[in-house]
Amino acid sequence: MEKMNEKDRAYRGGTSGVKYLLRGPRIDWGVILLKPGETMGAHGHREVEETFYFFQGTPKMVVDDVQYRVEVGDAFRIEPGEKHDIVNDTKEETKVVFIKVPYLPEDKITY
Q1: Residues 6+ apart with CB under 8 A from 110
Q2: Per-residue pLDDT tens over the stretch 72-101
Q3: 44 phi/psi in degrees, rounded to 5
Q4: What's the CA gap between 10 and 15, in Å, rounded?
Q5: How many domains are there within the chain?
Q6: Residue 4 included in any domain
């Protein structure tokens, strides 16, 4: 068993960005906070499936260059090989839970 509280971890970008809560041995998961005008950054994965659950904000989810306007409560499962990004083009913060499986930290494809 492993317990973690979000307040005990820092965002990669200081005050926003990716925040891993638990890493490995089988999954990665955490939260992403995007302030107005910020993006997650377009990327993909060779073998990893990534799921996003949106619980704050209404940004755009971009999958293989197709844009989807997010509603609170939306979830997206991204298959390996699909290019994806989250673009907060709104005036409010966006907060998202992400889960990546399997745990392969070097699997990222950057565009």
Answers
A1: 41, 42, 43
A2: 999 999 999 999 999 999 999 999 999 999
A3: -150, -175
A4: 8
A5: 1
A6: no
Residue 90: give the domain boundaries: 11-106
Take residue 74 and report the two structure tokens written for it: 């939306």
Residues 17-73 have pLDDT tens digits of 999 999 999 999 999 999 999 999 999 999 999 999 999 999 999 999 999 999 999
Three-state SS string across the chain, please? CCCCCHHHCCECCECCEEEEEEECCCCEEEEEEECCCCECCCEEECCCEEEEEEEECCCEEEECCEEEECCCCCEEEECCCCCEEEECCCCCCEEEEEEEECCCCCCEEEC
CATH number, position 37 = 2.60.120.10
